[in-house]
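Researcher: I'd like a structural prediction for the single chain below. Treat it as a standalone chain; there are no partners to consider.
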Amino acid sequence: MFLGTYAPRLDEKGRIIMPAKFADDLADGVVLTRGQERCIYVFAQAEFERMHDTLRQAPLASREARSFLRVFLSGAHAETPDKQRRVTIPPTLRSYAGLDRELTVVGVGSRLEIWDTNAWQEYLASQEDAFADVAGEVIPGLF
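Model: Treating it as a single chain, here is the predicted structure.
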């Protein structure tokens, strides 16, 4: 399970060092793709394959399903971290997420998210007030 917040930097070659805590979980490969709110989702290869099996069940007749699959899968990039735990973020994904040198990596359970640090701080500030109010509606029975 991916949890926590980390602050790596993007190097001049577009690489990020993934948090050491997750080295074992990501060693067999990762898939990076477009995430909602202009971040990059990072899935362990096995988790991405499980998700893809679920996505394949979306009805082809659904315009929304087709659109989601196109955007989500067309941005997908598979890679294996090197010995220093570095992963290259393709230019198209860096552009999509507006990544600069300062990054924030957030653990969100089954995936990691890579954010430009300023974008993450703005997003978090905009969500903090609604955090307590939404919990009961979004996840019934949690609290």
